[in-house]
Design brief:
Elements: E1 4-9, E2 21-26, E3 43-44, E4 54-59, E5 66-70, E6 77-80, E7 109-111, E8 117-123, E9 126-133, E10 143-148, E11 157-163, E12 170-177, E13 180-188
Length: 194
C-alpha cells in the first residue's frame, strides 16, 4: 500500500549467503521516504540470529503479508514474516533461484493474480514449478500444493517466474533446453488447472 518498505541488509564481513536481516521501514506519507534513516530503527521482520541468509522480500498482493526466502532450515525455503511455524513450502529444495544472493532483481517466487504462490526449484537437474495456496492457511503451511514440469509442457530449465497481470492461468519465465538457446517463455496451466 506504499506505507512500508522491505529490504535486506547485512554487516561486513558477512555476505548475503552468510547472514542477512530483513527489515521493514515505515515511509512518510507525503514524501515516500523512510521516517528514519537508521537501520536499527526499522522493524526486524526475520530471525536476526547472525547465521541465517534472508533474500527476496515480496509483499502478498491480497493479504499485505511479507514473504521472503530464508535458509534457516538448510534450504532456501519461502517463509511468511510474523509466522514462526517454519517455511510455507517445507520441501527439501532451494527456492532462491540459480543466481547468487547478491544479484538484484532475482526472485525465486511470485504471486499469481488470485493470491496463490508460484515458486521454482530444481529436482534431478530439471526445473519444477510449484503453485500453492498460502493465503487460506493461518497455520503457516501452504495448502493445495501442485507441481508442474516437463510433462506439462515446461522446458527442462527455467527460473524467475512472473505472473501475467491479466490472465490467472499464465506465467512468464526465463528458460531453455540443453539443445536450444534460452529465452523468455509464456506458459499456461494445463486445462486451467493453475
Amino acid at each position: 500500500d506504499g506505507t512500508k518498505l522491505a529490504y535486506v541488509t547485512w554487516d561486513h564481513p558477512n555476505m548475503p549467503w552468510d547472514a542477512t536481516e530483513l527489515r521493514v521501514a515505515s515511509l512518510d506519507g507525503g514524501t515516500g521516504t523512510p521516517e528514519s534513516a537508521r537501520t536499527d530503527d526499522h522493524e526486524l521482520a526475520s530471525k536476526g540470529d547472525g547465521g541465517t541468509s534472508v533474500l527476496q522480500p515480496l509483499w502478498h498482493p491480497r493479504t499485505g503479508e511479507l514473504y521472503y526466502i530464508s535458509d534457516e532450515t538448510g534450504y532456501y525455503n519461502v517463509h511468511r514474516a510474523g509466522k514462526d511455524d517454519g517455511p510455507v513450502l517445507p520441501l527439501p529444495h532451494d527456492f532462491g533461484g540459480r543466481a547468487p544472493g547478491w544479484t538484484l532483481g532475482q526472485q525465486g517466487f511470485a504471486f499469481l493474480n488470485d493470491g496463490r504462490l508460484a515458486a521454482t526449484f530444481v529436482r534431478d537437474g530439471k526445473s519444477v514449478l510449484v503453485v500453492a495456496d498460502v493465503a487460506s492457511s493461518d497455520s503457516g503451511e501452504a495448502t493445495d500444493v501442485r507441481e508442474y514440469g516437463q510433462d506439462d509442457g515446461l522446458p527442462s530449465n527455467f527460473d524467475g517466474v512472473v505472473a501475467d497481470p491479466t490472465d490467472d492461468d499464465r506465467v512468464y519465465f526465463m528458460g531453455g533446453e540443453p539443445d536450444a538457446p534460452g529465452g523468455v517463455y509464456s506458459w499456461s496451466f494445463p486445462d486451467g488447472s493453475g
